[in-house]
Structure formats: structure tokens, C-alpha cells
Amino acid sequence: MMGSFLLCLLSGVSIMSNPAEQLTHVPDGFVPNEKTAVRITEAVLGPIYGEEKINSEKPFSAKLNEQGDVWTVNGHLSDQYNHRGGVATVEIAKNDGRILQVWHGK
Questions:
Q1: How many Cα atoms within 13 Å fall on the side-chain side of residue 36?
Q2: Is residue 92 a contact partner of residue 43, using CB atoms and an 8 Å limit?
Q3: Which member of 21, 46, 49, 71 has the lowest number of beta carbons within 10 Å of its beta carbon?
Q4: Count of structural domains within the chain
Q5: What is the mean pLDDT of the chain?
Q6: 73: domain range?
Q7: Residue 91: burial class (beta carbons within 10 Å; 0-12, 13-18, 19+)
Q8: Other C-beta atoms lying within 10 Å of the C-beta of residue 81
Q9: Has residue 5 been placed in a domain?
Q10: 11: in domain
Q11: For the whole prediction, is pTM greater than 0.85?
Q12: Over 80: is that where the pLDDT of 12 sits?
């Protein structure tokens, strides 16, 4: 009886010890829509390029590639500030939210 109890307890511990395995499939991916992709982009770019610069490139827009697995998020140049140069771009994996690339045009 005690052996069965320990076996059940250990089975439960092994299942719960690696929660990442429990979240391996999310039907629409961890980045299911444009709004989520933009929010991730803003969080990533602020520390890299500075909040002021990133805020000046809002609104950001996101497009899903033809394969449906990578979001490309771009900032915009504002005519109001008479900016010259490029904007920030981030590529994010739809399935798991990995940041694939970050760059800023000149």
C-alpha cells in the first residue's frame, strides 16, 4: 500500500516538475494576434533604443508572414516630428514568442 502511494506521489511530482512540457501546444500560438505582437515589440525595443525613440515611432503595425509563423512588427516615421531615417523592426515567432531578429534602419 505504501509503495503504491509513493509511486503515485512520485508520478505527480515528475509531471509537475517540468511545467514547460505542459504548455508545448497553444492552439493559436503564444502570439496569436497583432496586438500581442506589438506589445511584445514595445517591451523589447524600449530598453534597447530608449523609450523616447520608440514612443516616437508609434503606432507600430504587425503583419503575419505567408507561412503564418512569424510576425514582423514595424515602427512608423511621424510627419509631425519631421523625422528622417529608418524605424525599428522586430520579428517574433508566433508559436512560442521567441524574438528572432531586432534591427533599426538608419
A1: 16
A2: no
A3: 21
A4: 1
A5: 82
A6: 27-104
A7: middle
A8: 9
A9: no
A10: no
A11: no
A12: no
| pLDDT (mean) for 26-51 | 95
**Would you say residue 14 lies in a domain?**
no
pLDDT for the residue numbered 45 = 97
Torsional class of 65: left (φ above 0), alpha (ψ -120 to 50), beta (otherwise): beta
What element of type H or E holds 4? helix 2-16
39-42 contact pairs (CB < 8 A, 24+): 40/73, 40/90, 40/92, 40/97, 40/99, 41/73, 41/88, 41/90, 41/92
Cβ neighbours for 32, distance < 8 A, ≥ 6 positions apart: 26, 94
Nearest to 56, CA basis, from 23, 87, 92: 87
- The set of cell numbers assigned to 86 is 529608418
Amino acid at 12: G
pLDDT in tens, 58-105: 999 999 999 999 999 999 987 655 556 689 999 999 999 999 999 998
CB 54 within 8 A of CB 45: yes
Residue with cell 492552439: 27
Residue 4 lies in a domain: no
